[in-house]
Amino acid sequence: MSEYLGHMFNVYADPFGWATLAKILVIILIVTAVRSMSIAGLGYLFWWKLFAKALQHRRIQQRIPSAARLWNELRWSLSTFVVYTLLGFGSYFLWKMGFTRIYPKIADHGWGYFALSVVLMVILHDAYFYWTHRFLHLKPVFRRIHRVHHESLNPSPWAAFAFHPIEAAISFGILPLIVVVMPCHMAAVNLFLLYMTALNVAGHLGYELFWRGFTTHWLFGWHNTSTHHNMHHSKVHCNYGLYFNVWDRLMRTNHRAYHDTYEAVLARPHGIAAPAGAAPGREEARGGAVRAESA
Q1: What is the DSSP letter of 206?
Q2: Residue 210's CB: how many other CB atoms inside 10 A?
Q3: Could you report the per-residue pLDDT of 66-104, keeping only the tens digit for each?
Q4: pTM strictly above 0.85
Q5: All structural domains of the chain with their residue ranges
Q6: CA 265 to CA 62: how far, in whole Å?
């Protein structure tokens, strides 16, 4: 086995050398951290700091998480970036070994397929996320892994990446899956990763971004909102979807009060905050975790 592994590394790593591979690993880590932290940081800076007072009527839950909770989200996020980096490097190594369907030139499949491939990645990831998310809510899995993420009953943008390392690996496992099963250009993959990061942060923003009537619109209603995922954190056993409201509708897992809650947030006059009781207190938060573990 050791001889085989040594041969494999010599064959596929020698063209670049170990020093170059180490540099690639560092570059992937930097790109991953910068992309994630910059999008989450901008969301936090804009909504939670600079314009928090002006936009308080858009805040889904009134109570602000403690500094300790925010720091905890940041610490878990750092470990997530390491896991994402390793999976990204693994995808790179699969490409080096010829196991992926990454193609070098957009002209190989044309601009039409380039655009279509991004859409297909999003659709594939949406299904992948829903069903892996349902798996994470199984009682033993939740207790040991997914509870880390659900410690944020009222999430901030930093909670978008606050995962147990195993959950981080599951969530980012879509990347090697995509590059192995479908032809894709790296620019398309990067656009998909950018979209994935932005929508993940939006779901944990804690403020509603859209307008009244969005969730019941014949077209827009198929896209999820910040309220949708915020309710998943506060109610736990509902609203499992990521980008679209397709799987939750098919599996009847939308919270029955989703549309009403969304409209209640959007109906507040400017300058009027959410009711003080909108966020769960400490005992309610503990009870929420217990309910989740007992599912």
Answers
A1: S
A2: 19
A3: 999 999 999 999 999 999 999 999 999 899 889 999 999
A4: yes
A5: 34-293
A6: 11
